[in-house]
Structures are given as C-alpha cells and as structure tokens.
Write a structure and sequence with these properties.
Elements (H helix, E strand, L loop, with lengths): L1 E2 L9 H8 L4 E4 L2 E4 L14 E5 L5 E5 L5 H7 L22 E2 L4 H22 L2 H11 L3 H19 L1
Helix pairs in contact: 3-5
This protein binds zinc ion (ZN).
C-alpha cells in the first residue's frame, strides 16, 4: 500500500454533497449513487445520480436521466464551486488517500495540478518587476532567469501531455 505525501486538507466537498442527497449508497470506493433531486419523483427509489470523488478531491456528478449537473447542484442548494475543495481547486489540490495501481498516465495526471501551481508562481516571479526584486534579494542573474523560464516551459509540456 502506497501513501502519497502531499498537502493535506480536511475539505472534502463530497461529504457536503452526499449529505444533501437522498438514497445514497456507496457502489465502489469514492463512488456513490443517489436519487436525482431534479427529475426523480418523490416516491421513486431508484438511483440515477452518480457521484464520484476524483483524486484531487473534486466531485463529478452525472445523472443517467440526462439532468445537467448544475441543475442537480441547484436542486440541493449548491453551486459549481461546491464541487471543489473550498479554498479553491489548486490550493487544495491533493490530500492523503490510498493509491491503488497507478499507471504513468495516472501519475502525470496527478502531477498536473502541482505543475499548474508551480507554473502560476513562476509566471508571477518572471514578471519584470518581481524578477528585479527577487534577483537582487537572492543574488540571481539572467542565467537563472533563463533556467527558470526553461523549467516553466517543461512544466507546460507536462500539462499538455
Ligand atoms: Zn436527473
């Protein structure tokens, strides 16, 4: 059993979503079915709504009756942002969770939020006014600037992979 060591957040949007739905059952780890609050009749006992928690903590909703997920959220008083950890998608990009068999593709996909985060920071650092302050403070020169830009481009490639 592998454990990923990452930033840990207590924010699990799925808890909030599941507690707002009726007839919830767990079908697999991190996957649930529930009654669709939009199109199912009050006395209906079927579960047409699929709820899945992704590795980054955000939640996917799918109604097999064809309802739009935004409508489903609206019916339980929630909004799109409630599908994401509450400090924003990137800030809480990961939390500790058991990892099963992961393919290189899974690993790349899991790295994308971190690559995005670093890219965002690098983007700020590379702004001329910020770079000037930082390079003076840390004693960096133009060569370091190119290295950082190169690293940023590598991350861009990872994000697009
Ligand atoms: Zn529905």
């Amino acid at each position: 059993m592998q454990h990923k060591r990452t930033a840990i957040t207590d924010s699990h949007p799925i808890d909030n979503i599941l507690s707002s739905l009726e007839n919830v059952i767990e079908t697999q780890k991190y996957q649930y079915r529930a009654k669709c609050p939009v199109h199912q009749k009050a006395n209906s006992s079927s579960r047409t709504l699929s709820i899945k928690e992704e590795t980054d903590g955000h939640v996917l909703l799918h109604c097999f009756g064809g309802c739009d997920y935004v409508e489903v959220l609206g019916a339980i008083g929630l909004k799109k942002c409630d599908l994401y950890p509450n400090d924003g998608f990137i800030a809480n990009w990961a939390y500790e969770r058991e990892l099963g068999k992961r393919t290189p593709r899974d690993i790349i996909n899991d790295c994308k939020p971190s690559a995005t985060l670093v890219q965002v920071y690098v983007g700020h650092i590379l702004k001329p006014e910020n770079w000037k302050v930082l390079s003076e403070t840390l004693g960096l020169d133009d060569k370091d600037l190119w290295v950082l830009q190169g690293a940023s481009e590598c991350l861009r490639e990872l994000l697009d992979a």
